[in-house]
UniProtKB/TrEMBL annotation:
Membrane-spanning parts: 26-49, 61-80
Protein name: ARGOS-like protein
Keyword terms, alphabetized: Membrane, Transmembrane, Transmembrane helix
Length: 92
């Protein structure tokens, strides 16, 4: 049986064979510089644009009811009985 220290070292170096770095690495190892730059620009735009752009008028009532109608349809379909006859149901 392995000792706790050996198991911990083995767990930390699981990714060593494939990537040649430990699993518990830094963020820079998982993301490229381009993807980090895109994430930073998107974050800054989400913080700044609402302060710069003028407020929009509320949408029409018909557009506001579309998500409610979709949710009602999904709930209806979820509780609709199945028409399949050869369905095997077992409990585990």
């Amino acid at each position: 049986m392995m000792k706790t220290h050996e198991m911990e070292l083995q767990w930390r170096w699981i990714g060593r064979e494939k990537y040649n770095w430990p699993v518990q690495g830094y963020m820079i190892r998982y993301f490229s510089l381009t993807s980090i730059l895109v994430l930073v620009v998107l974050t800054i735009s989400l913080l700044v644009l609402p302060l710069v752009l003028p407020p929009l008028p509320p949408p029409p009532l018909l557009l506001l009811s579309i998500p409610v109608l979709i949710m009602v349809a999904l709930i209806f379909l979820a509780f609709l009985p199945s028409q399949l006859t050869n369905v095997a149901v077992t409990s585990v």
